[in-house]
Each structure stands twice: as C-alpha cells, then as structure tokens.
Amino acid sequence: MTSVALTIAGSDSGGGAGIQADLKTFQELGVFGTSALTAVTAQNTLGVHGVWPLGPEAVRAQMDAVFADFDVAAVKTGMLFSGDIIAEVAAGLAGAGHPVLVVDPVMIAKGGAHLLREEAVEAMREKILPLSTVITPNIPEAEVLAGMMIRSLEDMEEAGRRLIALGTQSVVVKGGHLEGEERACDLFMDGRGERIWLSAERIRTKDTHGTGCTFSAALTAFLVAGEPIGKSVVGAKRFIHAAISDGLGLGAGHGPTNHWAYHRAGSALKGEVLIDS
Ligand SMILES: Nc1ncnc2c1ncn2[C@@H]1O[C@H](COP(=O)(O)OP(=O)(O)OP(=O)(O)O)[C@@H](O)[C@H]1O
Ligand SMILES: Cc1ncc(COP(=O)(O)O)c(N)n1
C-alpha cells in the first residue's frame, strides 16, 4: 500500500527549502506527500524577500481535509511562524489522534529572516514539543529551546537532555552550524538512554539552503517506511550528505541541495556516514 506523509510548512518559491524540499524528498523516498501550507515566502538563493502567513483557520482546514481522506502515517512540521498557527496545528494533531510527529523547529533563515516570531517560541516549547516523536533543531534553535549556549559536542549532549526533559520522545541536535568541527556531526538521543553520534565529511560548499528541511523530511520518510528511529536518522544523514555532496550550482547565493542524488547513487553512498553509539 502507498504510504502517505503530511508536511505542515511554509512555501519557498526558490524550491530548495520548506514545502518544496519536503515533497521532493518524500517523492525520492517513495512516500506520497501531502501538505498544509502555513505561509508563502518570496525567496531565492539570495534570501527571503517577503513573508505572507496564512490564517490559522486555513492551516487547520488543510490539515483536516488531509486527515479526513488519507491514512497519514507521519506528519512533519517546518516553518510554523506564529503562536496562533502553532495552537491550531497542535489542536489539529490532537484531533487526528496524535500521529507520529517529526518537528523541525525552523526559526531563522540563513540570511537572517524570521520564519518564527519571537512570541511563538514559548508555544513551540509548550504545545508542539510534547507531541513530538522526534525534534530536529540546528545549533541556534537548540540554544533557544534548551536555554543554553552550545559550543562543543558535550554542550550538544546537554541540550539534547534538556529537550527530552521538555517532553519530546527523542531529538537530533544537528551540528552543521558547530564552528571549528572538522566533520558535520549530529547527535540522536532518546528518553530511554539511546545515543547515536553520526558524522560525515564537512563539504566545502555555499549550497546548503534547505539542508535542515531536507534532513527532517528524509527522517519522516524513513519512519513512514517502517524503519526504527535510529535507522531512520542514519538514513536521513545519508540522504542529506548525498544531496550536499552532489550540488547543483543553482542561483547566485546559497543554492539548494540535490534532492535526487541519494536515489541516483543508492548503495554507493553507504560508507560515508560514520556511526558511533
Ligand atoms: N557543509 C556540510 N557538509 C556536510 N554536511 C552538512 C554540511 N552542512 C550541514 N550538514 C548536515 O546537514 C544536516 C542539516 O544540518 P544543519 O545544522 O545545517 O541544519 P539547519 O541549520 O537546520 O539547516 P539550514 O541551514 O538549512 O537551516 C545535518 O545532518 C548536518 O550535519
Ligand atoms: C519556507 C522555508 N522554510 C524553512 C526554511 C529554512 O531553510 P534554510 O535555513 O535552509 O534557509 C526556509 N528558508 N524557508
């Protein structure tokens, strides 16, 4: 049977992040993607040029329409923008019986544009985190949610513990932004003490727009395929590593990653991600 996932996120007109990255990634991994749009952004590789949020009721109506007609195996959230949208998304997820939930707590785009209002951070912490199967913050997002600075791999572990204490079942702290690290290291932790460090060569490229969205969409797709969470995180790391490695060179700024690289390279990629648990 065809598996279905729902992404609740913003539109990136440049096609590298947001809803577009999620649907491309789902498609590459054999999952049928549905969507609930939270906002339209006018965006390209040079930055975010405008943001138009939808009303919370429009977000909820899209969710309800999808849930009413499809057997949704997992939900992914990305840009949620405001406290009002977050409250409606949380209510919609409760109405759907709390499906498997991957939360990418998108806050600020690479160029500095706010994709989550500051007033909404508390709602993210209190209303969305406790519903999540896994949350995938980058370093700046983990710092805000966990209330601490992250300067080292030890700090990433402490932040992971704090996020689990806030109610998520598990967390991937993504280390793409950790300065001084030779490799791109991410940490998976769950509430039962499982811990997996994943690392891959840090690729020297400016084309990393949408890496966070793509990683968490791949994680969602592996969960939908029935993989356990640890294996899903490893699969997502392989997917994003392939997508960054095989860049497309599009646009004049921070270009998108190559969403079809993983599928094309297949098992040839397997050695590149190191796992330490
Ligand atoms: N230059 C790089 N080379 C290899 N892997 C990378 C690189 N940059 C990021 N990654 C990996 O990509 C994934 C996304 O990480 P990152 O920390 O960049 O997330 P993000 O900040 O949410 O993404 P974005 O910058 O798109 O918002 C992680 O697995 C990270 O280790
Ligand atoms: C609609 C939308 N959602 C998420 C991101 C984050 O992606 P990035 O941090 O790679 O710019 C984005 N730029 N736009």
From TrEMBL:
Reaction catalysis annotation: 4-amino-5-hydroxymethyl-2-methylpyrimidine + ATP = 4-amino-2-methyl-5-(phosphooxymethyl)pyrimidine + ADP + H(+); 4-amino-2-methyl-5-(phosphooxymethyl)pyrimidine + ATP = 4-amino-2-methyl-5-(diphosphooxymethyl)pyrimidine + ADP
GO biological process, one term: thiamine biosynthetic process
InterPro entries the UniProt entry points to: HMP/HMP-P_kinase_dom (IPR004399), PM/HMP-P_kinase-1 (IPR013749), Ribokinase-like (IPR029056)
Domain Pyridoxamine kinase/Phosphomethylpyrimidine kinase: 12-258
Pathway where this protein functions: Cofactor biosynthesis; thiamine diphosphate biosynthesis; 4-amino-2-methyl-5-diphosphomethylpyrimidine from 5-amino-1-(5-phospho-D-ribosyl)imidazole: step 3/3; Cofactor biosynthesis; thiamine diphosphate biosynthesis; 4-amino-2-methyl-5-diphosphomethylpyrimidine from 5-amino-1-(5-phospho-D-ribosyl)imidazole: step 2/3
CDD domains: HMPP_kinase
GO MF term set: ATP binding; hydroxymethylpyrimidine kinase activity; phosphomethylpyrimidine kinase activity
Entry keyword set: ATP-binding, Kinase, Nucleotide-binding, Thiamine biosynthesis, Transferase
Gene Ontology CC annotations of this record: cytosol
EC code: 2.7.1.49, 2.7.4.7
Keyword Kinase attributed: yes
Broad class of enzyme this protein falls into: transferase
Family: Belongs to the ThiD family.
Protein name, as recorded: Hydroxymethylpyrimidine/phosphomethylpyrimidine kinase
Organism name: Bhargavaea ginsengi
